[in-house]
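Worked problem 6 (solution included).
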Amino acid sequence: MKDQLWIEPVGGVIIARMRGVPTEALLKECQERILNLVKDTEQGLILHDCLEMETPQVEVPIAQWKLDEQVSSVHLRRAVVVPNTRLAYLARLAFGEGDVKVFYNDMAAALAWLKNGEPSPETLKGLSPKENLGTVRH
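Solution. The predicted structure is:
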């Protein structure tokens, strides 16, 4: 199982790479390791590299969604890089409620969005209405 998962902080972003068919146990391990790194590094920017991941059963992304529900107090900004529409759909199931964007085969765009992207709704809450006027939302 260890060779399917690689997680490491790189330049202010925590990169989580999964290979093969993920299981609920692998997702749980991934979540625990990411949360430990977020705590240690005080960084909540996560890049999920799923380019070498194979399509799991639908229960697996639902398990990820349930894991996220358990730690809803921790704000994570996630970019998920996928190779196809099937994994993109499953990524939306897994992370649909969070501050997340899915990218097709574009690691550079995912990193740029994480580091320089539009502010999250969490960030905008603290701004005055005048400051919010300058923010473009898509």
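Discussion: The beta strands are 5-10, 13-20, 45-53, 77-82, 99-104.
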